[in-house]
Request: fold
Amino acid sequence: MKKILIGFYVLIIIGIIICIGNSDIFDSKKSEAIAAGEKIYKSNCIFCHGETGKGEGSKTGTALNSQNFLSNVSDKDLYNYVKYGREGTVMPAYGPRMSDKDLKNVVAFIRDWQNEEKEFDVPKKLSGDSERGKAQYNLYCLNCHGEAGAGKDKMGTALSSPQYLKYNTDKQIWIDAAYGREDTRMGPSLKGLEGARQLKEKDITDIISYIRSLEKK
Reply:
């Protein structure tokens, strides 16, 4: 009798779990977060990043609505980007002016732009020659990203920003450089892709090593 009751209770618990899983409770919370995030985005971010997130705002702002970008970052990454901003750029740190919930809602709104999950081929070893990378950077990247990664208004993000280097891994920077962001001036650089630059994996790795060397220890 005891075994029958235990089995009955187990079935009830399983049924409850299935019901919750099939309900729209979680979808409802997600929708609420996205809607709240949209309001915050329109009040704080639209002027730089644009209404559609393509970086088409009236002020300087990078493209966030990019499948390459969104496939290359986690929600935690997005959270850190918004919270800590980019020192030396027009991207302020929103941590002091937004609650944790607000930050997460903005992330939910940005993440909702993602409609595919892209895969990237990245070398296992990303330790290159920074001196050679500097020469490659000056040849291929300086025009948009500025001297020593300082960035240029309406052209390219500041790669030497302490927050950029702290909250991006070498792998993420390599993917950005190799695959670019579709529908922006940042085209792909990896040889074999449809970009004006046709760089070998080693070329990009050396450039990333140079960019990493800009980090202030």
Residues 175 and 205 are 10 Å apart (CA to CA). The mean pLDDT is 89. DSSP finds eleven helices and no strands in the chain.
